[in-house]
Amino acid sequence: MGYGKVSKVQITDNTITLSVELEDFDVDALVEISGTATQDNGAVATFYAVKKMPAPIAGVAIVTVESAVEPGTFDPDSTVTVVARAAAVWINTLDPDTSQAMAWKRRKDGPGLYLPPQPPSST
What topology is assigned to 3-92 in CATH? Predict the structure, then answer.
């Protein structure tokens, strides 16, 4: 079972960036990271991403997750509370199954796992 924690939150240009420390996931496994960051003043930001698990350094891997945030909602002088989840996931592509109505089946010639190409990281 994987474990994790959010070690840093930063808001820049209406984007919230969370640094999530993960342990015990296989390198290159797909990891789904989701959750909510809140403040007592009512500020809320939700986040969701599927990322490849990077190689850990000293047993811990850091994955960044970004999401849009409404300008001016978070107070830089107040505490942020983050509820985050990380889970190993699999993604399949299914094609229409012409032998049945309204049915789909996994491609036999395609990979079972697929992660769309990610833009280069700026960090």
Answer: Immunoglobulin-like (2.60.40)
Q: What b/e string do you get for 32-52 counting C-beta neighbours within 10 Å, with b at 16 or more? A: ebbbebbeeeebebebebbbe
- Bridge-based pairing state of the strands 104-106 and 44-52: unpaired
Let me know the angle formed at the C-alpha of 98 by 94 and 107, rounded to the nearest 5 degrees: 25
Residue 49 binned pLDDT confidence (cut-offs 50, 70, 90): very high
d(CA 89, CA 104): 20
Q: Is the model's pLDDT at 114 over the cut of 90? A: no
Look at residue 110 and tell me whether its pLDDT is greater than 70: no
**CA-wise closest residue to 67 among 114, 25, 20:** 20
**Phi, psi values for residue 94, rounded to 5°:** -120, 140
Q: What is the pTM of this model?
A: 0.75
